[in-house]
Amino acid sequence: MIDMLSFRLERLGYGELLNWEGIHHAKIEIGDNKYDAYRVIHDTSLGPSKGGIRFHENVNEEELKMLSLLMTLKNSLMELPYGGAKGGVRVNPKSLSRDELRELSKKYAVAFRDIIGTWKDIPAPDVNTNSQIIAWMLDAYQNSVGTRDMAMFTSKPVELGGIHFREISTSFGGFVIVEYIAKNIERKNITVAIQGSGNVGGNLAKMLYESGYRVVAISDSKSGIFNRDGLNISEALKHKEINGSFEGYRAEQIDNKQLLELDVDVLIPAALELQIDEKNYRYIRAKWIVEMANNPIDWRVDGMLGSYVVPDILANSGGVIGSYMEWIYNLTGNYLDENTMKERTKDKILSKFIKILQKNRENMREEAIREACERVLRAKRLRN
Ligand code: NAD
User: Fold this and answer.
1) From the CA of 294, how far away is ligand 1's center (Å)?
2) Which of 353, 335, 34 minimizes the C-alpha distance to 173?
C-alpha cells in the first residue's frame, strides 16, 4: 500500500515528502497478552501533527505511515494549522472486556505521553475507538504529566471539553458534498449506497435520509441491506442497534461485494481501506464515489474506474475541521454555536470541492494531492 503511495508522490514530483519525522512503537501488556502500539508522525511543518488512533487487528507500521501521510495532505488541503500523524494498537478490541479496553487506552496515552501534546501531536478517535476511549486517554495523560490542559485530544465527551458537533462533523462534510452533487450537478433524486454504518457511515446515512435522499443500501462488517426505493434508515439503524446487525431486517439482504457493485448515483465507502481493488474495480457502476473512509480505493485502479472520485483527503475532512473547532474552543474558551460550526465547515469543504471539481473532474485526487503537497513544501522552504 505504501509502495503505491510512494510511487504516486514520486511520479508527481513530491518524493521529498516521503520522510517520516517519527515512528514510535511500544508493547502494551494487558494480563498475559502483549499488544503492539504505535504513534507515527509524518510531518509537522504546518503545525502540531494531528490524526486518529485505531484499535484493529490489522494495524501495522506501513499502514500507519500511509495514513499519517494522508493526514498531512488532508490538513494541508483544508488549510488547517496541522501536520499529520496516525496511531493504533494491533488488537481485536471485541476480544477485550471493558476493563481491559480501559486499561489499554490508558496505557497507550502514558506510553506516548512524550510525543502527544497540545502543541506537539493531537490524537482523535478512528476505527473502533470513540469518545469514551479518548476520555480514558485524556485522564491518563493528564495525570501522568500533571496538567488539566484539555486540547491535546479531540473528539472528547462534552463534559471533558468536547463539542457536540465533532461527533457528526465527518459525516456532515460528506453530506454537503453529496448534496452539492445531487442539487447542482445531477439535479435529480439521486440513489446512494453506503458501505459501513459506524460513526461516519451511520451518521451520514441518517443525515441523507432525514433530508429526503434515497439511501438504497447500507452495510456493516457482517451484512448489508438493499431496497431500490430507498431504505427507512432510522428504522434500519434501530434494528442494528437492537440486534447487533442488519440481519433479519425487512429488506433484501446483500453482502459488501454486492453493495459496492450496485448501480447507484453515489457510492460511499465508509468502512475500511482498500475495498475497491484490482479484483472488483471492473464491476463498480456508481457514477460518483465519495471516499468517506481513508484510502478505500487501491490507487492502482484509481484511473481505471468509470466513476468520478471525490478523494478521502477532501471528502472526509469534516472530521478534522470539527476537531480544529474543538481545539480552538479548548484554547480560547470561546464556544461557537452549532449552526455557525456547520456553516463554516460547509463553506470550507464546498469551496475546496468546487475548485477541485472545476480544475479536474476526471482526476480530483491528483488535483487535491498537488495542492496539498505544494502547501507543505512552501512551509518547509520557509523554514529552511
Ligand atoms: P467505526 O468503527 O465507527 O465504523 C466502521 C464501520 O465499518 C462499521 O459499521 C463496521 O461494521 C464497518 N466495517 C468494518 N469492517 C468492514 C468490512 N470488512 N466490510 C464492510 N464494513 C466493515 O469507524 P468510523 O469512525 O465510522 O470510520 C470509518 C472510516 O472513516 C475509516 O476509514 C476511518 O479512518 C474514516 N474516517 C473517520 C473519521 C471520524 O471522524 N470517525 C474521520 C475521517 C475518516
Assistant:
1) 9
2) 353
Number of the ligand 1 atom closest to the C-alpha atom of 316: 43
Q: Ligand 1 centre from 315 Cα, in Å?
A: 14
Predicted TM-score (pTM) above 0.85: yes
To 10 degrees, the CA torsion angle through 260, 297, 41, 160?
-20
User: Do residues 256 and 310 share a domain?
Assistant: yes
86 counts as catalytic: yes
Given the CA of residue 220, which atom of ligand 1 is nearest to it?
11
pLDDT, one tens digit per residue, over 279-293 is 999 999 999 999 999
For residues 333-358, give the mean pLDDT: 96
The total of structural domains in the chain comes to 2
Residues 234 and 362 in one domain: yes
- CATH number (domain holding residue 50): 3.40.50.10860
Ligand 1 centroid from CA 223, angstroms: 14
Whether 3 has a pLDDT exceeding 90, the answer reads no
Length of the chain: 384
- Of the candidates 86, 106, 156, 352, the residue annotated as catalytic is 86
- At 300-334, the pLDDT tens digits run 898 899 999 999 999 999 999 999 999 999 999 99
CA dist 266 and 283 (Å) reads: 15
Predicted pLDDT at 2:
66
CA distance to 75, 250, 365, per residue, from 113 (Å): 23, 48, 35
Domain-embedded: residue 378: no
Instruction: List the residue whose alpha carbon is closest to atom 15 of ligand 1.
Output: 221
Say which DSSP state 337 is in. Answer: P
C-alpha cell at position 329: 474552543
Q: What is the pLDDT of residue 302?
A: 85
Considering the domain architecture, whether residues 122 and 227 belong to the same structural domain is answered as no
